[in-house]
């Protein structure tokens, strides 16, 4: 994080790296809640973000390379939070956007996107602005 105390600066970020296993997702849910609270998100917005991060991770874990690392980067910008989760995958395919899981992500976060790197690392990015309400359905 670029700044320890005070209001978030435009370059504030937190990166959490942990084993790509469901047992560790509670760490990311807690980090999500804490960072969203720091930005004065409402309780409903915080819960939506926690569920969205959990769902994004669940999507990635389905195709993650066994024993790999799941990375989660939180970027705090003014009144918004961007969360990008990524993991090396076995097939290198972007998540399907016509699934129930993707619909849940889109409903809970303001904007959702995915990307695939040349090394088959798949990432899902969520962008939520404080006070924006639920994402598009």
Describe this structure in words.
With 137 residues, the chain is of the alpha+beta class. The chain has one domain: Heat Shock Protein 90, CATH 3.30.565.10. The chain is built from three helices and five strands; from the N terminus they run E-H-H-E-E-H-E-E. The protein has helices at residues 25-38, 43-61, 100-108; strands at 12-19, 69-77, 80-88, 111-116, 121-129. The protein has a five-stranded antiparallel sheet with strand order 1-2-3-5-4, with helices on one face. A hairpin with a 4-residue loop joins strand 4 and strand 5. Helix 1 (25-38) packs antiparallel against helix 2 and helix 2 (43-61) runs antiparallel to helix 3 (100-108). The longest helix is centred in the middle third of the chain and has 19 residues, at 43-61.
**Number of folding domains?**
1
Give the % helix.
25-40%
State the CATH topology.
Heat Shock Protein 90
Mean pLDDT: 88
Please write the CATH class name: Alpha Beta
Order of helices and strands: EHHEEHEE
Q: Tally of extended strands?
A: 5
**Residue runs with pLDDT of under 50 for 5 or more positions:** none
Describe the biggest sheet?
A: 5 strands, antiparallel
Record the strand order, biggest sheet.
1-2-3-5-4
Question: What's this model, at a glance?
Answer:
With 137 residues, this protein is of the alpha+beta class. Helix content is 31%, strand content 30%.
SSE inventory with pairings:
Elements: E1 12-19, H1 25-38, H2 43-61, E2 69-77, E3 80-88, H3 100-108, E4 111-116, E5 121-129
Antiparallel strand pairs: 1-2, 2-3, 3-5, 4-5
Helix pairs in contact: 1-2, 2-3
